[in-house]
Design a protein that fits this description.
Number of strands: 9
Distance between the termini: 49 Å
Number of domains: 1
CATH superfamily: 2-enoyl-CoA Hydratase, Chain A, domain 1
Number of helices: 3
Largest sheet: 3 strands, parallel
Order of helices and strands: EEEHEEEEEEHH
CATH class: Alpha Beta
Strand content: 15-25%
Radius of gyration: 20 Å
Length: about 140
């Protein structure tokens, strides 16, 4: 760890090769990438969506991600047992920031490039409106 001037600590890349930049492979996929998102896209998924949005990797279709674009608080928790009821309560200890620049929008989840909400009828009929929208985009782009 390296102590920063603001009092935080940073992992030193020379001790963790996973932190070093990785060059794309020559045989990588070069086609269009479509990513489906909704309010259940939280935790690591919201971090993934934020990175995709920041670095313009793919087209996000669906609804706003459930997790915060800029980071979260799921890394460390403290558990307390309430004295009378003995109910166990968990509370986050740390807020972390995603490795992204220019958090847009602040205090919200990653917004899709195409807003495609799911309707109640879709759930009853097992219709995937978002997937069909992506299929239409693919057809239109070909």
């Amino acid at each position: 760890m390296r102590k920063e001037q603001d009092g935080t600590f940073t992992l030193r890349p020379e001790y963790n090769p996973d932190l070093l930049p990785v060059a794309p492979k020559p045989n990588r996929f070069r086609g269009d990438v479509y990513i489906l998102s909704n309010e259940h896209s939280f935790s690591t998924t919201s971090e993934f969506l934020a990175a995709c949005k920041t670095y313009r990797v793919g087209t996000i279709v669906g609804t706003e991600a459930g997790g915060a674009y800029g980071g979260g608080n799921g890394s460390s928790f403290i558990s307390l047992s309430l004295p009378n009821s003995k109910i166990l309560v968990g509370s986050p200890l740390v807020y972390y920031q995603n490795a992204i620049s220019d958090v847009q929008p602040p205090d919200r989840g990653a917004l899709p490039d195409y807003e495609v909400p799911i309707k109640a009828k879709d759930l009853l009929t097992d219709y995937d409106r978002q997937l069909d929208f992506v299929k239409e985009l693919i057809q239109k782009n070909n």
